[in-house]
Design goal:
Blueprint lengths: L8 E6 L4 H19 L6 E6 L4 H7 L5 E4 L2 E4 L4 H16 L1
Parallel strand pairs: 1-2
Antiparallel strand pairs: 1-3, 3-4
Helix pairs in contact: 1-3
Length: about 100
């Protein structure tokens, strides 16, 4: 069996004092824990505060929270179901 290579990085665009971002962060953590338990691939997570960079703010500011993984985006990722489907579609497809 061939190794899928290095773990991909999931970028989590967020903003301080954002309730939607807090909800998305908790949902993401729950989904990642589920993936660990079942032995599925778990990406590295890199949280990015959109307010720290003007270009990033322009690109993602009005849509936070946003997950970006391997060129795919999930905007307003508030629920576990949406995050779970996004990771399955993006990560598990690599192994097929």
């Amino acid at each position: 069996m061939t190794s899928p290579g290095p773990l991909p990085t999931l970028r989590f665009y967020e903003r301080a004092d954002c309730e939607l971002c807090d909800d998305a962060r908790r949902a993401l953590q729950a989904v990642l824990e589920e993936r660990v338990k079942c032995g599925a691939m778990v990406p590295k997570v890199h949280a990015i505060d959109v307010a720290r960079d003007a270009e990033t703010e322009r690109a993602f500011g009005y849509r936070v929270p946003v997950l970006v993984l391997e060129g795919r985006e999930l905007s307003l990722a508030m629920g576990q179901r949406a995050i779970r489907r996004f990771l399955v579609d993006t990560l598990d497809a690599r192994l097929a």
